[in-house]
Automatic annotation (TrEMBL), chain A:
<keyword id="KW-0479">Metal-binding</keyword>
<dbReference type="InterPro" id="IPR016272">
    <property type="entry name" value="Lipase_LIPH"/>
</dbReference>
<keyword id="KW-0732">Signal</keyword>
<dbReference type="GO" id="GO:0004620">
    <property type="term" value="F:phospholipase activity"/>
</dbReference>
<feature type="signal peptide">
    <location>
        <begin position="1"/>
        <end position="20"/>
    </location>
</feature>
<keyword id="KW-1003">Cell membrane</keyword>
<keyword id="KW-0472">Membrane</keyword>
<keyword id="KW-0378">Hydrolase</keyword>
<keyword id="KW-1015">Disulfide bond</keyword>
TrEMBL record, chain B:
<protein>
    <submittedName>
        <fullName>Chromosome 4 C3orf52 homolog</fullName>
    </submittedName>
</protein>
<keyword id="KW-0472">Membrane</keyword>
<keyword id="KW-0812">Transmembrane</keyword>
<dbReference type="Pfam" id="PF01390">
    <property type="entry name" value="SEA"/>
</dbReference>
<dbReference type="InterPro" id="IPR033223">
    <property type="entry name" value="TTMP"/>
</dbReference>
<keyword id="KW-1133">Transmembrane helix</keyword>
<feature type="domain" description="SEA">
    <location>
        <begin position="135"/>
        <end position="257"/>
    </location>
</feature>
<feature type="transmembrane region" description="Helical">
    <location>
        <begin position="95"/>
        <end position="116"/>
    </location>
</feature>
<dbReference type="InterPro" id="IPR000082">
    <property type="entry name" value="SEA_dom"/>
</dbReference>
């Protein structure tokens, strides 16, 4: 509080000086600042539909000078995380613009680059608490001026996610929603709820995990926790340190890119509640009956539609996989295979769907699947794109064995069911899949199966 | 000693101005460096032999030899190694060659056995005994040929036209089921037993023969109506692309009981 009262006049004067020059910008620091360490300074940049290209630096106390800051509108906060290089986050403008495109809100970019830019991560962690105090005071001020706490949405990235949690806890969980994008793990893992984000911090807390094995947080933190690609290694991210800095931040940063993808509506990512990623990949969690007509929750901004049912469920872990590049969404199919081989066979499948020259590919290779005589094997195939009408389909069976004799998988029926659309399942009967040989065929609408 | 004797001519070839005898002495020293006593004896003998040629006193030679002797051991070893290297060193070459050869052989044997394994690998699903297939199983049904014109001749099965058409259709069905990986071995015959009006509607009967022991399992899965019906149905969809052909069968008209 002391710091806050001390900084207010400073910010005010800064605001007035900048106003004269036009737009206010996000603080741009460099590695030098980070090296020397920066002390916390919280700047609030306001964007609205009226001035979406030009930020206004808000005063923390006096809102009268900002007619565009309309408190009858909902307010979304964007809070960045640790900035070891001091550079402004590249995604801030896009996120702000997409939020404004969706709804008429006040977007406030919380610029705490002074405080986050510090080579000493522990110092930045310390600053999150202080910055949260600062923000809490600001939001209380907003409430005094007539804002409704339940219309406040905070989007926090990494450290910013926990900061949102602290703000929410300070306000007794009254704020509407917190979206946490890969909440920071180091210094927060295994801490009690009051020292990290938790579901009580807001009316609805949705969390995305993309880097649980390094910079992110492993355990569930919200009402729904999305684990993209299991929450560990994101496709398209470098696997070795040879790729430089991207090796460290790519997985972590993917969380923001996925959220942006959910905002711009290029495609929706359906997430499946499940206990573990392995079970999800095994296709054991494809049932969405508990969500009724809405189906399984859609990842990202629009998950608020499932708020009530998810709150009833307590904490939900939901899984999905993505492509390496945008559009990140994949199309899920259930593939059921019945074979008549006398011996049990194990192997992987590559399935391709063809339509009008476009080809969608799915590799079912997270583990080798078991094919047992007259028993249905369910595979969960996730295709890199959606194919409107499947004209042709091809299947390649492989075992990964180099020295063993080439096996033949003798398929009685393969049945392909779209997971979301209520389309008739497609079938093909009587296939001979020689190992590593692609077999292409035209699937026919399934008849009601007897077995 | 044998080896040393063989190397003698080589020494002579080197153009040394000293006689063979002396070299023998020297060589003797080479072989047994320690045996200085014997060495000096040989030396005296050598000196005696050479007396006429080299006008030096015995004692002088003696002294010279002693000096020479002191160096001869390492010097000649080095020379021997050098010679051995200069000659084709069969023994050493053979060692690494044998090692590589053995390695190649081992790899070859492994690859060969793997190849043998995959060649003699028997796919249990490819082996069957047709004589055990005794229990008949029939499927009846019909399909429509929209591009055929129904005539009175077709109605009577004994006419030429109807025989041509039914054999054609029977062959088609038989070819399809015989080439089926799952059903082929059980297939017995296909019969088109009547042609009706409706462009032309053909009634057919398929006969399969099952082994007695697995007949119920097979009837539930491999030879279920679903399989037999859909194998034919999907083949009709495969030919759907040219719907104007005279023998075109309308896929949706397919019935099977």
């Amino acid at each position: 509080m002391l710091l806050w009262t001390f900084m207010t006049p400073l910010l005010l004067t800064a605001a007035h000086m900048c106003r004269a020059q036009g737009c206010d910008e996000f603080t741009d620091l460099n590695i030098g600042h980070s090296f020397l360490g920066t002390s916390l300074r919280v700047r609030l940049l306001l964007y609205t539909r009226e001035n979406s290209s030009c930020a206004t630096l808000l005063s923390h106390t006096d809102f009268s000078a900002y007619p565009s800051f309309n408190l009858s509108r909902p307010t979304s906060f964007i809070i960045h995380g640790y900035r070891p290089t001091g550079s402004p986050p590249v995604w801030v403008h896009e996120l702000m613009a997409l939020l404004l495109l969706r709804t008429d809100v006040n977007v406030i970019v919380v610029d705490w680059n002074h405080g986050a830019a510090n080579l000493n991560y522990l110092k930045a962690v310390e600053n999150t608490k202080q910055a949260a105090e600062n923000l809490t005071a600001f939001i209380e001020r907003m409430q005094d001026s007539g804002a409704n706490l339940s219309s406040i949405h905070m989007i926090g990235v990494s450290l910013g996610a926990h900061m949102s949690g602290f703000v929410g806890a300070n306000l007794k969980g009254a704020i509407g929603r917190i979206s946490a994008l890969d909440p920071a793990g180091p210094q927060f893992t295994d801490k009690p709820p009051e020292e990290r984000l938790d579901p009580d911090d807001a009316q609805f807390v949705d969390v995305l995990h993309t880097d649980i094995d390094a910079l992110g947080y492993r355990k569930p933190l919200g009402h729904i926790d999305f684990y993209a690609n299991g929450g560990t290694d994101q496709p398209g991210c470098p696997k070795t340190i040879l790729s430089g800095g991207a090796y460290f931040k790519c997985d972590h940063q993917r969380s923001v890119l996925l959220y942006l993808g959910s905002l711009n509506r290029t495609c929706t990512i359906r997430a499946f509640p499940c206990d573990s990623n392995t079970e999800f990949l095994d296709g054991k969690c494809l049932s969405c009956d508990q969500f009724g007509a809405d189906g399984c929750p859609v990842f990202g901004y629009d998950v608020s539609r499932w708020k009530n049912v998810l709150k009833k469920l307590g904490q939900t872990k939901a899984f999905f996989t993505t492509n390496a590049q945008p559009p990140y969404c994949r199309t899920g199919y259930k593939v059921e295979v019945v074979v008549w081989n006398t011996d049990v066979h194990w192997g992987y499948m590559t399935i391709k769907l063809h339509h009008n020259g476009t080809e969608a590919v799915a590799n079912v290779d997270h583990k080798s699947s078991e094919f047992r005589k007259f028993t249905e094997t369910t595979l969960f195939a996730q295709f890199d794109k959606d194919v409107k009408d499947v004209e042709k389909m091809s299947v390649t069976f492989s075992t990964g064995n180099v020295f063993k004799p080439k096996y033949k998988l003798r398929v009685l029926r393969v049945r392909l069911t779209h997971l979301e659309l209520d389309k008739t399942a497609l079938c093909r009967y009587d296939l001979l899949l020689e190992e590593n040989k692609e077999v292409m065929f035209r699937p026919v609408p399934c008849e009601d199966a007897d077995f | 000693m044998d080896v040393e004797l063989i190397t003698l001519p080589a020494n002579g070839n080197n153009g040394k101005s000293i006689s063979n005898d002396r070299i023998t002495a020297e060589n003797g020293a080479d072989v047994t460096c320690e045996v200085t006593e014997r060495d000096s004896l040989l030396k005296t003998h050598a000196a005696g032999n050479q007396n006429g040629d080299i006008p030096v006193s015995n004692s002088d030679v003696e002294a010279q030899r002693t000096v020479e002797n002191a160096h001869s051991c390492p010097e000649s070893t080095a020379r021997r190694i050098w010679e051995e290297l200069n000659d084709t060193p069969f023994s050493k070459v053979r060692l690494w060659m044998i090692l590589i050869f053995l390695l190649v052989i081992i790899v070859a044997i492994i690859l060969f056995s793997l190849w043998i394994c995959s060649v003699i690998h028997e796919d249990v699903d490819e082996k069957f005994d047709p004589s055990l297939f005794q229990v008949p199983l029939h499927f009846n049904g019909s399909f429509q040929l929209p591009n055929q014109v129904f005539t009175e001749e077709l109605f009577t099965l004994s006419t030429n036209e109807s025989i041509v058409l039914t054999t054609d259709l029977e062959d088609k069905l038989a070819d399809l089921y015989r080439s089926s990986p799952a059903l082929g071995r059980y297939f017995s015959k296909a019969e088109v037993y009547s042609l009706r009006n409706g462009s032309v509607i053909a009634d057919y009967q398929l006969t399969f023969l099952l082994p007695e022991e697995q007949q119920f399992e097979l009837q539930n899965f491999t030879l279920s109506r679903e399989m037999v019906y859909n194998v034919l149905r999907q083949s009709l969809y495969d030919q759907e692309t040219d719907g104007s052909a005279p023998m075109y069968i309308y896929p949706r008209s397919l019935r099977m009981f």
